[in-house]
Amino acid sequence: MTDIHIRTIGTTGRITLARPKALNALTYEMCLAIEAALDRWRSDPEVACVVIDSQGDRAFCAGGDIAEMYQTGTAGDFSYGRRFWADEYRLNAKIFSYPKPVVSFLQGFTMGGGVGIGCHGSHRIVGQSSQIAMPECGIGLVPDVGGSLMLALAPGRLGEYLGTTGTRMSAADAIYAGFADLYIDMSDWPGLIAELEAGTPLDALTDAATAPPTGAVEAAQDEIDRHFGGERLADILNSLRTGESDFAAKASDAMGRNSPLSMACTIEMLHRLRGPSLSLPKALELEYRFTSRAMEHGDFLEGIRAAIIDKDRQPAWQYPDQKVPAAAVSKMLMPLGKHALTLEEDKMQTRKIGFIGLGNMGAPMAANLAKAGCAVTGFDTAVTAAEGVTMAETAAAAAKGADVVITMLPNGQILRAVAAEVLPAMAEGTLLLDCSTVEVESARAVADLASARGILCVDAPVSGGIGGAAAGTLTFMAGGSEAGFRTAEPLFEIMGQKAVHCGGPGAGQAAKICNNMILGATMIATCEAFALADKLGLDRQKMFDVVSTSSGYSWSMNAYCPAPGIGPQSPADNGYQPGFAAELMLKDLGLSQQAAEAVDADTPMGARAFELYRRFVEEEDGRGKDFSAMLPRFATRRRE
Questions:
Q1: Looking at 282, 371, 512, 625, which residue is catalytic?
Q2: How many other C-beta atoms can be found within 10 angstroms of the C-beta atom of residue 319?
């Protein structure tokens, strides 16, 4: 193949990208050839390491060759692009986990697909001309080829900045951000490669390295963290637009050229990835959820047209006002079920799941598990069903033969009764995963019952509401043993975006109670503030613009604004139809006060929030409305 030169010299497997006129852009055939060489050298005792370099001075690899994707995609054939990405991501994973050293020499541009080839090895060398970037949002994609892993690991909020702006990193910047390891003068590269071919130890690379010229990114870290720490795209854009520095203006301009949908999904991906469960397979799987949909539902084809085909640089993006609904982000990042990306290093066996409680939350959670390939048997006392779920006549029947039994139930009394029924039907070593929100005492009592039978037990109440259950973006607060949490973790990744192991039995419920006590109190304060602003003659939008980017920032304000037409889409824009019902908030606040009484904790704000929601639900018109419907309540009331 003329586009790539693969050979063995001495003790070194050599791969040279050979398309300098095309900036060494990676074709599908080149990916397959590299993978075949790596597979061959893996077990070859004569090959001690692999060196990847490229011809020409301008680029190591400026990305993937996307012309074929455009041609097939505009013809309505999305399978070629999906196959390309799946095979490319498999190659990226092999480089990352390769058992022998992989040394890459990254001159000039290293972008997109070039990052996947050059930045996952053990020794990543940069020099005077190196410029590394993840500019995918500019063509309607997201940072992929495992780039989201490095962005999630970058210091502070550098990942969001680099991913949404496509900023090019110098050699120093790339080392600081974690995309490269060593700076070596480029004039020394040919001699070092020759030494490696002759069997010289890799220490020669470290010995040749020097400090790179100063970069710009590290100096801007404080400002990056300040502006890019928001929960969603709108938060970041609001912060930049109210900033007065040259940095804020330049970053805002850069983001103004990129696909809003891609940027919003990039931010969401990085937030989901950060945490103890971060891994390359997880990053690649999440990237593939987006890229497999990018041509059909995203901005990818329009991005290529504007940048590569017509070259008018005037893409007609979706959401040109940069207000991307949360539902659009969720749609692009939903699990792919049987079409999910599989890697040789990350193949999961199908699990048998029993799911007890198929209400507003349980039914979509169970459906997402079924879509992901799990065999789900469900039971609910109401005659309900969930897509892809086989229904059983009893809870015990649903639990029989299951690897994991998941419960989503209304209260602790029902949880205890269900546990008493299903635990005798479960085999030793299986897992009972309770996602209900109940008292800490009930969670611990059920854990004791499970432990007595040799069954793992995790209490993992959720945050995210009905929308999060449907979209697979829930947050799980888990309590139980480390073994139980690790067993549940793959299921958390299907049903949600984040799972935190909070401690032993009952810790998940404790975390949920504390979280929702804060949520209830801050929502009341947010609603009170809007009602006060109305009476002071302050425009609601102006108030939001100030508070959402200053010390009044909160989830209740920025992500779930109770004022219709202000901020991101929320239940307020749908007549306060519940995403999280007021009566459920009342339940959770009641649990917090029970817990406070049990441990003699002073929680006056929590107690006051409980009383206000009790009155709202039981004496006023709050039942059946979203918990943010406190705003019209306060707006029509006078000081008591």
A1: 512
A2: 16
